[in-house]
Design brief:
CATH class: Mainly Alpha
Number of helices: 4
Number of domains: 1
CATH architecture: Up-down Bundle
Largest sheet: none
Structural class: mainly alpha
CATH topology: Substrate Binding Domain Of Dnak, Chain:A, Domain 2
Oligomer: single chain
Radius of gyration: 14 Å
InterPro entries: Csp_YhjQ, YHJQ-like
Helix content: over 70%
Distance between the termini: 17 Å
Shape: elongated
Pfam families: Csp
Protein name: Cysteine-rich protein YhjQ
Number of strands: 0
Order of helices and strands: HHHH
Length: about 120
């Protein structure tokens, strides 16, 4: 449900999912930096930050019902799927949980294209 208005209520599930995904990516980013195989995670770590940033921007654009939010959400879905694949390469709990959030966000963002 919108906070100041109800004009974006139809996007709320995706807004919430983008916010959850960004948080999961930042948490996973910090956890990955502390893993013993941090060198092997370089691409994953980079993708986590890119995904979090994209999710934050998508949430912002949907919150203002922006002109290009659907196109942005399409790209966000692509990046979330890539991030989930990167996290799936590592079997620790934080990567597993992050991948789950990324897949969920990708699914919600894909739904935006049909709105």
């Amino acid at each position: 449900m919108g906070i100041a208005t109800n004009s974006t209520d139809k996007f709320q599930t995706c807004i919430d999912e983008c916010n959850r995904c960004a948080q999961a990516c930042y948490e996973c980013f910090k956890a990955c930096l502390n893993e013993s195989d941090v060198q092997a995670r370089k691409n994953c770590i980079s993708t986590l930050v890119e995904c979090a940033q994209m999710c934050q921007m998508s949430s912002s654009l949907m919150s203002m019902n922006a002109q290009f939010m659907k196109e942005h959400c399409t790209l966000c879905a692509t990046i979330c799927s890539k991030c989930a694949s990167e996290c799936d390469m590592f079997k620790d709990e934080h990567c597993t949980k992050c991948a789950t959030e990324c897949y969920a966000c990708a699914d919600e963002c894909k739904k935006m294209t049909s709105m």
